[in-house]
């Protein structure tokens, strides 16, 4: 099911520092979470496919285009959720072309 009108949606943005292991560069993570009906486990991998939707009138292109855009910028996408407890979609992108974050100074 698509997110019902009585569900809440939240967006958070976090800076993830390079850790030298799986994350060689500083990254920004954008997480979009809802309290909707969740995604059944057998459908999780399909949400990234074009034209797959559970939303009436939806095109099924939103997550497919978002994923391709993030991957084109050397980022990663992920999803966490289960039926009855909502879904969180995470987009992680390297900052500064994959280099360290540098604080700006103003004169």
Short description:
With 107 residues, the protein is mainly β. The chain is built from 1 helix and 4 strands. It has one helix at residues 62-72, and strands at 9-16, 27-34, 76-81, 87-94.
Can you describe this structure?
The model has no long low-confidence stretch (mean pLDDT 84). The protein has 107 residues and is mainly beta. The chain has one helix at 62-72; strands at 9-16, 27-34, 76-81, 87-94. Strands 1-2-4-3 form a 4-stranded antiparallel β-sheet, covered by helices on one side.
Ranges where pLDDT stays below 50 over 5 or more residues in a row are none
Distance between the termini: 52 Å
**Number of strand segments:** 4
Overall 3D geometry?
globular
Overall helicity: 10-25%
Biggest β-sheet, characterized?
4 strands, antiparallel
Average pLDDT taken over every residue:
84
Structural class: mainly beta
**If helices are DSSP runs of H or I spanning 4 or more residues, what is the number of helices?**
1
Strand proportion: 25-35%
Radius of gyration: 16 Å
Order of helices and strands: EEHEE
In order across it, which strands form the biggest sheet? Answer: 1-2-4-3
Please describe the topology of this protein:
Elements: E1 9-16, E2 27-34, H1 62-72, E3 76-81, E4 87-94
Antiparallel strand pairs: 1-2, 2-4, 3-4
């Amino acid at each position: 099911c698509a997110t019902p009108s009585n569900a809440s949606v939240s967006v958070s943005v976090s800076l993830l520092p390079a850790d030298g292991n799986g994350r060689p560069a500083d990254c920004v993570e954008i997480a979009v979470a809802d309290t909707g009906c969740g995604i059944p486990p057998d459908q999780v991998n399909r949400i990234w496919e074009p034209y797959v939707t559970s939303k009436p009138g939806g095109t099924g292109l939103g997550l497919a285009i978002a994923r391709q855009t993030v991957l084109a910028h050397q980022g990663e996408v992920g999803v966490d959720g289960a039926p009855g407890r909502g879904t969180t979609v995470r987009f992680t992108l390297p900052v500064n072309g994959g280099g360290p974050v540098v604080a700006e100074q103003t004169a």
